[in-house]
Amino acid sequence: MARHVLQQSVESAAIALDAIWSNKLRSFMTVLGNVVAVTSIVAVVSLIRGLNASVQDAILTGVGADSFTIERTGVTMSEEDAERVRSNPDITLADAAALRRNSSLATAVMARARRTGSVSYGDKSIEDVNIEGVTPEYIDFSAYDAERGRLMSPIEVQRSRPIVVLGWQTADRLFGNGDPVDKVVRIEGVHFRVVGVSAKKGSFFGASQDEFAIVPLGCYQMLYGARQSLMLMVKPRDPSLLDATMQQATAALRASRRLKPRQLNNFGMFTSDTFLSLYHQATNGIFAVLVGVVALSLVVGGIVIMNIMLMVVIERTREIGLRKALGARRRDIVWQILTESIVLSTFGGGVGTVVGFLVALTVARLTPVPAAVEPWSVVLGLSITALVGLFFGLYPAVRAARLDPIEALRRE
Questions:
Q1: Has this prediction a pTM greater than 0.85?
Q2: Are residues 200 and 69 in contact, defined by beta-carbon separation less than 8 angstroms?
């Protein structure tokens, strides 16, 4: 019995596939809506995921996943907040010293400052390079590395030796294929010896993350002055102690700054999760609406398939009547029509998935917007279109199955 049912199902599927192949142009025009819909969905989802991954990498590189940052103002969400923090005092080395003394959970407290400046070597000069000054603790943070040469030692930083670690692109633009290590460059006209070159980090929305120079904070302050608010990066003994370390650091700073219990913090504190949360709050609604609007085209494609399948049922009324007269059951007719609808829809989904990937990769290649092509997107695209074919093919299939064989055979 089961074998007979399987045989009947295979025969129905074969008839449906033969009907699709016999009407190639009509089949293609039927699935064109699905092709456009799935192309749009796959391309948009790939670009969104690529953008999210790029933003997350940039934030984690800048802030660090296992540390937190303290600044003069922090993140402000309203004009009222911005006005309140405008009078906050600068973050200084005294604040860093207070954290080191009174925060037992912190394993490293680094002070840093940054601004743009010029870096030159020989007759080559680069403007708007990110010049960053750091304290000896910088070596404990994963954001700093050296692909060639080495990092500055804590003793060299503490003694404000005129040395520098260059970003990959800065070194490439100044030295080309030459070795930058132990060469002397000029930062704002002052000589610095190159001790290392950082690994390539790539770009973020067209802006290079490799155009920088890292020097000891003492040298930075000699170049640009000491009257600039610093940023403090604090690393807990263990990532699981991040929240406890932040609370302890808050108490240490409040005590150092002699803030009363009812006074608000006059400094800002945030982690990488703070920026990621702000980013997702700003973009999740936009992305959801964008995907929803694109997904509406799937419904349109499904309606087109249903209309075509209804027309197919009318065209093949005599054929269906003949099959029923020869012993075909209702489920055989339903399976035949559903197979045709699902195959058409899934074919459109497959073509749309491939085209969507190509569109996403082309956009990523020609623009600063990144793309991330995920394998599960293929499964998602094919599954959605199969469900669309099933849902919108069900009514034509049931209508075909209900045809009276005698009435069907009488139709011309």
A1: no
A2: no
